[in-house]
């Protein structure tokens, strides 16, 4: 399968370096525990950040006859070497306030030393360091290419952290953890490369020397540490170490090594003799070491551990996805020039290929000649009578990477014979551009020598039942009897949540066999009117989708009961207090826009369900017109009190009802045509039209809206495409 340059680069980099990355990650996890084990030692003094160098030096020099060294490590522990009153040498950690000896210096365990050598050089000395540095750079490139792939997947940088549909374990967590670990991984890789470059002197480090005029040095007036400004104003937290004078001569002095500079200080009067500011290279070297190792920070060390563990998971999930794609290869028994049926596939991650292969297999078993290939490999098919396009959508309604050239190739390669076509779109209703590319393909295939055998058919979340339904419709058209085995295609219910039935009307009370059921999530769930609820009546692959109305914070469904209906029968058999397991699906493209100036809602039958919730949530009292198609006046009884309440409190501005089975037969589209000027004005004023109900009603309404826009606004309906939202079935 053709893949984008970014995906190819991402995969190629991972394949070429995964062994080194694996070793670096495992050793990195181990080494990240070292700073944690050091940091928890009881050698840091309370109020350390407020202790001055003057206080500490005064304490040491008054307690011990001689102080040889004094330094502060990355844990803010004070290390010193002194001679005590008995003339014995004492080295280790000290209390900087009292100069009390606390314990011996922590020695790095041999296990950590061994792991460090493996991490830095793989025991290959300079050659190993070069390989590790190169590995860090490759991991950086992997992170960059992965970031670009996520941006493409999420359709824009602004949506980088937007919700991701969980349709595959490895792919979902590869993306989710990749986003969360991106910054730590980039810091690990950049600092690793920097430290390697520093190791081989590839960075310019010109260290200036102190210039001291010894003739100007004087031993007067003598001052104590508490009187010397440089020691008073220097905090221990700024200090790395102090170099003490060797003798009482004025030419010997204190040298303070701070985090950003060196200062030479007269040992008698505290005058600053010379100052050297460290170059940026030194700053970046220290910062790189801290960020790469986690020295001095338990929190950052934990983050490094998590990031390294995630890298190991990326190795697993990346190869799992690759093997899955390779496992869904396209294989042909017949040549393209001899095939009666041609199946064209568009897939970004290989999921659609499984369905296409299953269809190919059944057609061959039925004795038909079939050729299957990618959309980008479209060309002339001499004997093709039927063309089947099975494609996913990627990004903002874009084609998958193996279908991005199809529309141009369709213009380039004209079939000589007449043929039929059918387009099947695969996607997720959680994305606003659900199956958009499939509709684009369908539109492009409408040509003089083609016949649309079946209207564009969409499949949500790889639903086997939907695919089976399409196969039945399509195979009847081509006069074949096909039966697709479900074993390799079914998707079991996943990510379901529990809901409690808190109310339900009776079917017998409504002439249209319609009832309302209200569900309350057992745990917190964020949802909006217009979202979908998927139920699994038999706890198997078969799902039923219902539009959600959010009323009083609960999920309200309007359901048409069918005697042998799988979903409606299951919901109708539930009683108040029963538990229902279902899956919430965000349906972002059918949410009420926050800044809509006016809203026109159009529905028929149970399509009113999401609008009942939207009206309930219309707290700003945006002007809202309802056009609702029903059979007769009795059909309204189920919703009458709710709608009248919304009219009374101004959440609904007007209600226009069309009864199709009364003495005067009226349909919704007729009311829209009657109010055409007002509808056209709503669109011109940036208002929104929302449609929910049957597909038959939707087609009639769209046709009417097209006429209204052309007559009243002199513009095609397509001009207002972004202002029209629909969820029809």
Q: Could you characterize the architecture of this molecule?
A:
This protein is of the alpha/beta class. It has five domains: 5-39 and 110-204 and 289-323; 42-105 and 228-278, no CATH class; 330-477, Rossmann fold; 497-589, Elongation Factor Tu (Ef-tu), domain 3; 595-728, 3-Layer(aba) Sandwich (Rossmann fold), CATH 3.40.50.80. It has 18 helices and 25 strands. It has an eight-stranded antiparallel β-sheet with strand order 4-3-2-1-5-6-7-8, with helices on one face. The chain starts with a helix and ends with a strand. The model has no long low-confidence stretch (mean pLDDT 88).
Radius of gyration: 36 Å
User: What would you call the shape?
Assistant: elongated
Strand order, biggest sheet? 4-3-2-1-5-6-7-8
Approximate strand percentage? 15-25%
Kindly give the count of domains: 5
Task: Kindly report the average pLDDT value.
Answer: 88
Task: Characterize the main sheet.
Answer: 8 strands, antiparallel
Number of helices: 18
Number of strands: 25
**What separation lies between the terminal Cα atoms?**
33 Å
């Amino acid at each position: 399968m053709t893949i984008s340059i970014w995906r190819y680069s991402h995969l190629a980099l991972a394949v070429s370096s995964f062994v080194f990355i694996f070793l670096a990650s495992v050793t990195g996890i181990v080494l990240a525990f070292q700073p944690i084990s050091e940091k928890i030692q009881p050698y840091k003094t309370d109020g350390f950040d407020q202790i001055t160098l003057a206080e500490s030096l005064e304490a040491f020099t008054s307690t011990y006859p001689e102080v040889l060294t004094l330094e502060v490590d990355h844990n803010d522990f004070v290390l010193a070497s002194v001679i005590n009153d008995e003339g014995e040498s004492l080295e280790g950690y000290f209390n900087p306030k009292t100069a009390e000896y606390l314990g011996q210096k922590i020695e790095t365990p041999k296990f950590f030393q061994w792991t460090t050598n493996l991490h830095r050089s793989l025991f290959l000395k300079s050659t190993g360091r070069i390989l590790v540095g190169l590995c860090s750079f490759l991991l950086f490139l992997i992170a960059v290419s992965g970031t670009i792939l996520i941006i493409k997947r999420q359709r824009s940088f602004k949506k980088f952290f937007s919700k991701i549909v969980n349709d595959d374990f490895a792919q979902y967590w590869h993306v989710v953890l990749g986003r969360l670990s991106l910054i730590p991984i980039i810091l690990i890789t950049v600092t690793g490369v920097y430290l390697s470059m520093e190791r081989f002197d590839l960075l310019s480090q010109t260290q200036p020397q102190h210039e001291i005029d010894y003739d100007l040095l004087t031993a007067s007036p003598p001052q104590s540490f508490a009187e010397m400004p440089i020691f008073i104003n220097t905090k221990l937290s700024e200090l790395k170490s102090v170099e003490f004078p060797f003798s009482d001569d004025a030419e010997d002095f204190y040298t303070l090594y701070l985090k950003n500079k060196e200062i030479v200080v007269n040992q008698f009067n505290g005058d600053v003799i010379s100052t050297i500011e460290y170059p940026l290279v030194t700053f970046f070297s220290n910062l790189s070491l801290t960020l790469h190792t986690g020295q001095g920070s338990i929190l950052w060390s934990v983050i490094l551990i998590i990031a390294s563990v995630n890298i190991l998971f990326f190795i697993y999930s990346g190869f799992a996805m690759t093997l899955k794609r390779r496992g869904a290869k396209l294989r042909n028994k017949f040549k393209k020039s001899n095939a009666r049926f041609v199946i064209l596939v568009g897939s970004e991650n290989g999921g659609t290929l499984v369905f296409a292969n299953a269809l190919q297999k059944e057609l061959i078993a039925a004795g038909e000649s079939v050729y299957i290939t990618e959309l980008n490999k479209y060309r002339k098919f001499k004997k093709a009578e039927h063309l089947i396009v099975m494609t996913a959508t990627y990004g903002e309604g874009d084609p998958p990477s193996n279908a991005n050239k199809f529309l141009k190739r369709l213009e380039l390669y004209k079939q000589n014979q007449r043929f039929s076509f059918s387009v099947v779109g695969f996607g997720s209703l959680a994305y606003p551009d659900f199956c958009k590319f499939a509709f684009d393909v369908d539109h492009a295939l409408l040509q003089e020598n083609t016949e649309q055998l079946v209207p564009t058919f969409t499949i949500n979340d790889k639903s086997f039942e939907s695919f089976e339904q399409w196969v039945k419709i399509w195979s009847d058209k081509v006069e074949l009897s096909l039966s697709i085995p479900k074993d390799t295609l079914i998707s079991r219910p996943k990510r379901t949540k529990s809901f409690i039935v808190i109310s339900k009307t009776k079917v017998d009370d409504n002439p249209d066999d319609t009832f309302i059921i209200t569900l309350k999530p057992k745990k917190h769930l964020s949802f909006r009117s217009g979202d979908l609820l998927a139920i699994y009546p038999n706890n198997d692959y078969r799902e039923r989708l219902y539009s959600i109305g959010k009323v009083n914070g609960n999920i309200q469904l309007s359901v048409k009961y069918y005697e042998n209906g799988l979903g409606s029968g299951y919901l109708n058999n539930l009683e108040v207090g029963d538990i229902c397991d279902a899956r919430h699906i965000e349906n972002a493209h059918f949410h009420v826009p926050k800044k809509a100036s006016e809203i026109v809602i159009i529905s028929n039958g149970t399509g009113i369900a999401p609008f009942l919730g939207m009206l309930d949530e219309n707290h700003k009292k945006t002007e809202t017109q309802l056009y609702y198609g029903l059979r007769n006046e009795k059909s309204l009884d189920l919703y009458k009190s709710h709608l009248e309440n919304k009219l009374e409190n101004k959440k609904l501005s007007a209600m226009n009802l069309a009864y199709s089975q009364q003495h005067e037969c009226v349909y919704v589209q007729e009311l829209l045509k009657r109010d055409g000027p007002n509808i056209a004005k709503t669109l011109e004023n940036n208002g929104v039209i929302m449609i929910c109900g049957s597909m038959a009603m939707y087609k009639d309404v769209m046709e009417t809206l097209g006429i209204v826009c052309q007559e009243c606004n002199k513009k095609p309906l397509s001009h207002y495409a972004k202002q029209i939202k629909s969820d029809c079935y």
